[in-house]
Amino acid sequence: MPLVFAGLGNPGAKYAANRHNVGFMAVDAIARRHSFSPWSKKFQGLIAEGTLGGEKIILIKPQTFMNLSGQSVGEALRFYKLGPGALTVFYDEIDLAEGKLRIKTGGGAGGHNGIRSIDGHVGNAYRRVRIGVGHPGVKEMVQHHVLGDFDKADRDWLEPLLDAIADNAAMIVKGDESGFMNKAALAVQGKAGVEPEKPAPKQQSHIRQARPQQAPAKLPESGPMAAMLKKLFGNKD
After folding, report:
1. Would strands 55-62 and 45-52 be described as parallel, antiparallel, or unpaired?
2. Is 20 labeled as catalytic in the residue annotation?
3. Structure pTM?
């Protein structure tokens, strides 16, 4: 049985370079890198077939417009008699900084209409590859932001990230999600516009944690030692 990789976006040249279309860009990169079949029309979308990690993969780009993505993806899963566990969806995520990539299975739509549509048609128990496109800062600008084209400067991180997705897509098939995310992070490390990953807070070793904390030594108040200390340091309160 095949696995389905769906990239989300809007059809047509008008939207091709939009941030909202980065899901299309991701599956296009996979198709090119791994010599998938030419794109053909099926399931209210465009599909291409190939293999990754020894598994047959169906790439699909719904042509229903973003808000109805579930119609296309649901039709494909029903045709192949697949459950949501066979589905991986690539899409833009405004709640991730530019160039960041995260994978999770299940969860809510987070305001993404394409994901909301897929949830309504197949349930939510599928893998999501969330590609950060950043947030404009105010809610009223979100639509303009995601339906706007990537800036020329964004190519510095976007192209290496898409290359990393294509190069390492087989890791998703094999279930190595953390390895895939690491490859993506390394690809954009130090690129313009990409925030560095925050290191995990430094923790004490388990030995140091287990060692009882010693109270500061109490200085003698009388006797020869006290007299010597007073001579050295004087009477300091």
Report:
1. antiparallel
2. yes
3. 0.82
